[in-house]
Known about the structure:
Helix content is about 50%, strand content about 10%. By secondary structure, the protein is mainly alpha-helical. It has a domain at about 35-70.
Amino acid sequence: MAGHDLTDEQARWLSNLLQSGRERGERDKFVIPDVVHEVLAEKGLIQWKRNALEITLDGIKEVARRRRRL
């Protein structure tokens, strides 16, 4: 499976977003820098749904792929 050519910073924010979803209310405090947000949204790894920032299935797969490489 090919990756999305993310920088380490972008991948870290994506992973942080996934992790934050496990704690109720954490996403309310989660703020991704605009430049990172734009890239992740363009690549279809995050989306806004019901006024909440969510990681997409492709985003989850990208985090899992990167973790397997480590």
